[in-house]
Specification:
Helix content: 40-55%
Structural class: alpha/beta
Shape: elongated
Distance between the termini: 40 Å
Strand content: 15-25%
Strand order of the largest sheet: 6-5-4-3-7-12-13-14-16
């Protein structure tokens, strides 16, 4: 906060007042949204909580002895379970829990072993109590598609027949299918490729069948960032060949994955090249929010997929969510640490992200804890996932953002920054050549994304480095103000962020050059721009902020 205040004070009293007014408005809005979300419950929503109706007992607990029907396909005892509940007068859909967690897993590809790994983790037993899977506080429901077992919906419960022993490799899951999962099958589904309508159908069904005060949606699979339609070839990226300053030599330490031939979308299947576009993903989420939740946003949206914490992707989902978590970089195939996440939610501890008073916004606490838990899990000595993949922590990035702050602060600030950048370059075209070096020095993610926070720091460095040549012009001053405003907006938007060991210097846990764990498309040159600009122009962010205008000036297009 102190550094933000110093930045603000340097911009003048009028600017200081305006920032604090905006910030106060944002905080009031977040408070209202968090504390009074119940007022926006949909018309069909149950009046009473399950905790109240069931007198603080979990009457919907799955009873393996009475309900289970184990087959070669898995546990087909869910109909017996529902029949038993109905006979006892228990109707889950007529009351609401604190949380319903809906996980959509696209594993009909090389990810199948990792999907089985995650499912076993979700139902892994705790000796201290029933904290995995579904509890009195939460329901965990998964829709999964695999090559070996087809597509189905599962109601995840803690497995009681054996102790949980975390695997250290995918080997135990390579020649088996979903029959190893003991949680009951809600229903078997026709085998169809992942799609926006299929995701939307799952979300709508899950929200009404398992009503909750708060919903968490997890999209699980291969992710490749922004793409509006069919996959397009990706031009070879240039390497960093110039540096603005000797201090930028640290960037050589940052892992730079090699780009594949094609890029974009989510739920990608490498075998056949299919994917779901980001607009289709947005339509699925908006359909569930508008039609089923009647406009009430999803409380927590998480991408358990690579490269999805990209500004262009965020701009599509933030209108329909409260908080968004994900990785801007290529992440470990092991995924989120589900067992620990479920423990923290079901116990109400939330990884000690706040002193609980009974008035905390639990969705905010989940957003704060996800990057922390993921980082801890990747510790090669103490983390369960780190012991299985000792190098996963190197390229790890994860951030959680406030959707409202992204909408109210980042998008307007990015619009003004774009105008300033364009004017600054057009004032003196020598700067276009300087920006070529600037772009190539900005840490990059696979698929064309570059770290937004670092870009701002390098941009200001380039501006200051040019002052001896041109002097402090009006356009330079305006750019300086808008860079600082953009940094403040990011600080207010990014709730929590964690970065891997590849982003540190000499073993120190410091965030280099303003890292926020959020990417944005900045092409390496005119060829890449011409090749992908039309696709990116279909994104809401590019349409509304005019982001490509300064890129055109830089590349002389």
């Amino acid at each position: 906060m102190s550094s933000a205040k110093r930045v603000i004070s340097s911009l003048g009293a009028r600017f200081t007042i305006s920032i604090y007014v905006l910030k106060a408005t944002l905080l009031v809005s977040l408070f209202f949204f968090g504390e009074h979300a119940a007022a926006s419950r949909p018309s069909w929503f149950p009046e009473k909580s399950c905790r109240e109706v069931w007198k603080n007992r979990d009457l919907a607990k799955y009873d393996v002895a009475k309900d289970a029907k184990l087959t070669k396909d898995g546990d087909l005892g869910y109909s017996a379970y529902q029949k038993r509940l109905k006979a006892a007068g228990i109707d889950r859909s007529s009351c609401y829990k604190d949380w319903t967690i809906l996980v959509y897993m696209a594993a009909d590809n090389d990810l199948q072993p990792y999907a089985l790994w995650d499912l076993e983790e979700m139902e892994g037993r705790f000796d201290s109590g029933r904290y995995a899977g579904s509890t009195l506080k939460s329901d965990l429901v998964v829709q999964i598609d695999t090559k070996a077992s087809g597509k189905r919906r599962l109601h995840i419960f803690q497995r009681e027949d054996r102790a949980y022993s975390p695997a250290i490799s995918k080997a135990p899951y390579e020649k088996v299918g979903l029959e190893i999962i003991r949680s009951p099958i809600i229903e078997l589904l026709p085998k169809l490729a992942p799609s926006g309508p299929d995701l939307e159908s799952f979300l709508k069904w899950g929200m009404k069948t398992y009503p909750a005060d708060k919903y968490m949606v997890v999209v699980w699979g291969h992710g490749q960032g922004w793409n509006s339609g069919p996959l397009e070839p990706l031009q070879e990226r240039g390497k960093n060949t110039q540096e603005i300053d000797q201090t930028l030599t640290v960037l050589k330490q940052i892992p730079q994955p090699v780009a594949n031939a094609t890029f974009g979308g989510i739920f990608n299947n490498p075998a056949n090249g299919t994917n779901v576009s980001i607009p289709d993903l947005r339509d699925a989420i908006s359909g569930a929010v508008d039609d089923t939740l009647e406009g009430r946003p999803i409380d927590m949206y998480a991408s358990d997929a690579c490269l999805m914490q990209m500004s262009e992707v965020l701009a599509e989902v933030t209108p329909y969510t409260r908080f968004v978590s994900g990785s801007a970089q290529v992440q470990s195939l092991l995924g989120l640490p589900y067992r620990r996440v479920l423990y923290e939610i079901n116990t109400g501890r939330f990884a000690s992200t706040a002193k609980l008073t009974g008035r905390e916004d639990e969705a905010l606490l989940v957003a704060k804890m996800l990057p922390k838990l993921s980082e801890a899990s990747l510790d090669p000595l103490r983390g369960q996932q780190g012991r299985a993949d000792v190098k996963a922590r190197e390229t790890f990035t994860m951030s959680s953002v406030s959707s409202m702050a992204f909408e109210q602060r980042v998008l307007p600030a990015l619009t003004e920054l774009t105008k300033s950048l364009t004017s600054y370059i057009d004032e003196d075209m020598v700067r276009a050549f300087q920006f070529d070096s600037l772009i190539r020095s900005t840490p990059s993610y696979m698929g064309g994304g570059r770290e937004l926070g670092s870009f701002l720091k390098l941009l200001d460095l380039a501006r200051r480095s040019d002052l001896p040549r041109t002097g402090e012009t009006a356009f330079s001053k305006k750019l300086a103000r808008d860079i600082r405003e953009m940094e403040i907006a990011l600080d207010e938007t990014v709730i929590e962020r964690r970065l891997g060991t590849g982003y540190t210097v000499e073993g120190k846990s410091v965030h280099l050059l303003g890292f926020r764990g959020i990417g944005i498309w900045i092409p390496s040159g005119p060829k890449e721009f011409q090749h992908r600009s039309q696709d990116f122009q279909l994104s809401r962010l590019h349409r509304e902020t005019g982001w490509q205008s300064w890129l055109k000036s830089t590349f002389g297009l």
